[in-house]
Amino acid sequence: MLTVKNISYQIGPHKLVKDISFSIKPGELIAILGSNGAGKSSLLKLLAGTYKPNEGTIHFNGQPLSKYSALELAKMRAVLSQQNVVSLPFNVQEIVMMGRYPHFNNHPSAHDHSIVNTVMEATGVLSLAGRSYLTLSGGEQQRAQLSRALAQIWENEHALLLMDEPVSGMDILYQQQTLAILKAMTQKKFMVISVLHDMNLASQYADRIIMLKNGRKWYDGTAAEVLNPKSVYEIFEIESDTFTNPTTLKQIIMPREIIYDNNKPPLST
Amino acid sequence: MPKGIIYAVLVIALILAGAFSVGLGAVSIPVPEVFALLLHKAGIRNIANVNEQHQVIIFIVRMPRLLLAILVGAALGISGASIQGIFRNPLAEPGLVGISAGASLMAVAVIGLETTFLAGLSNVLGYYLLAFAAFAGAGITAFIIYQLSRHDGKPNVATMLLAGIAINALAGALTGLITYLSSEQQLRNITFWMLGSLGGATWQTVTTLTPFVMIPVLLLPRSGKALNAFSLGEIQADYLGLNVNRIKRNVILLSTMAIGSAVSLTGIINFVGLLVPHIVRMVIGVDNKHVLPASALTGALMMVVADIISRTIIAPIELPIGVITALIGAPVFLYILVRDKRKLSI
């Protein structure tokens, strides 16, 4: 259980996160939506423990987040960033094993090896185990990194997985597969919080959606509750139409095309 | 290939090259006699008719030089690998990024000041002072370059190499300034080691250098796992529960301790720190737990071999060892640049 109460965060005069509260239960997948600069990444860094809130509190499994040592935290929460540059040609198996680093001192145990194998099987990178990370496609690299994050917290019930736009730059199959893996992880009682760009992905897979604007939480609820033309306009400043998928009953959001006045082309000054 | 075999091959090659090197020179001593004399000296197996002249040549003249080559090579190899790991950059080499220049600047400053302010110091203390000063110079430069070469928490290759050029130029200019202000005796001392040479080897330099090199060689491999995590990026390493700042400080301190003290006694020897980790990774893989100790061994081996070449190629004249390492290392550096051109574009 992660409980966030009235947290604010600022760097210098810039308030990046303002008075946000919410909580997430084990087994839940929350998507965070918002335009660029809405405070999504800052919120994620606060939840990861990288930033300390100026105001408010974060409780993680019964304890203030700040009370955890870096190592304790590493065993219970994993973070997957948007960009993952690896400076040396490690192979995929070695990258995934890095997720087990908080769990062993010098040599990985047989148990660590078996977790790495299980995770790679779950994410579909087992066949790439011996390949150099630098030779993988963007989607494969991201799945190797996802495997690393999962290996880090694999056996901890109520562990927290934080992700910053995990599917940006991936093709559609990888996007769907990745979210499906995450959804499956919530069956293991993980708590998953992911920043997403794609509202429809959020609608398909997230149990709850939190929408941010200017560092504040504007909406918080299921896709059916919060995704509608009004909220989408407030958050993203685009006109849209929402439909319901007749078979899955999930919300679908279609942005309307923007038509500029031909007499006043927008790109000329 | 199993890692144990690789280590064994390196150790055996180092011993053989060392014995060959000790036997080599104006008075040539065959390798079996070298081993026999060593065993005799160690009291393990006494031999009846000891060749006194050979014994003196080996233990007074050539042995210190061999040990100096081994220590300096190990220092260059392991700090090259560590610095590359911490900078997250396979081109970060102590010489190229100006760490060695920082060390040599401090060493020159000490030599320049020695007769005026530190005249009372004995010779032994002088060596330690020199090593400490160079260590400080290397450490300070490394921290400056590290800070300069980062933008938004990410390393920037172009800035790192350009900052290296600037620091090299600055240190070169200041070194030049000090040499102009130096007396003739000081000047001789300064130019002597600015050539990058093992010629100054004595038992005294070897004993001075030993702790400065052996402590890092023994401690740095313990940071292997952390350096692996560093290759994911500092932020990711932090998420894995590592104390990023402490690791950074420890690794930079230990590797500049080795590199600075080595530079203070032999001058700047370029490219070994670049070349060795690259070769090692090709053979043993990229896991820093093995790359670090194997780089120390390979660096030592490479210096012993380079020393053999420098003494034989135009014998009896001895080529500065820095010439040999640059002749081999610079083309390899160019090769890496061409290979990684796309990744390195500004």
TrEMBL record, chain A:
InterPro entries: AAA+_ATPase, ABC_transporter-like_ATP-bd, ABC_transporter-like_CS, P-loop_NTPase. Residues 2-239 form the ABC transporter domain. Keywords: ATP-binding, Nucleotide-binding, Translocase, Transport. GO terms for molecular function: ATP binding. Gene3D superfamilies: P-loop containing nucleotide triphosphate hydrolases. SMART domains: AAA. The keyword Signal does not apply. The keyword ATP-binding applies. Part of the ABC transporter complex HmuTUV involved in hemin import. Responsible for energy coupling to the transport system. NCBIfam families: PRK13548.1 (NF010068). This is Heme ABC transporter ATP-binding protein.
TrEMBL record, chain B:
Its main location: membrane. This is Iron ABC transporter permease. PANTHER family: ABC TRANSPORTER PERMEASE PROTEIN MJ0876-RELATED (PTHR30472:SF25), FERRIC ENTEROBACTIN TRANSPORT SYSTEM PERMEASE PROTEIN (PTHR30472). It is a multi-pass membrane protein. It is found in: Cell membrane. Belongs to the binding-protein-dependent transport system permease family. FecCD subfamily. InterPro entries: ABC_BtuC-like, ABC_transptr_permease_BtuC. It comes from Mucilaginibacter gynuensis. The chain crosses the membrane at residues 7-29, 66-87, 94-113, 125-146, 158-181, 201-220, 251-279, 291-309, 321-338. Keywords: Cell membrane, Membrane, Transmembrane, Transmembrane helix, Transport.
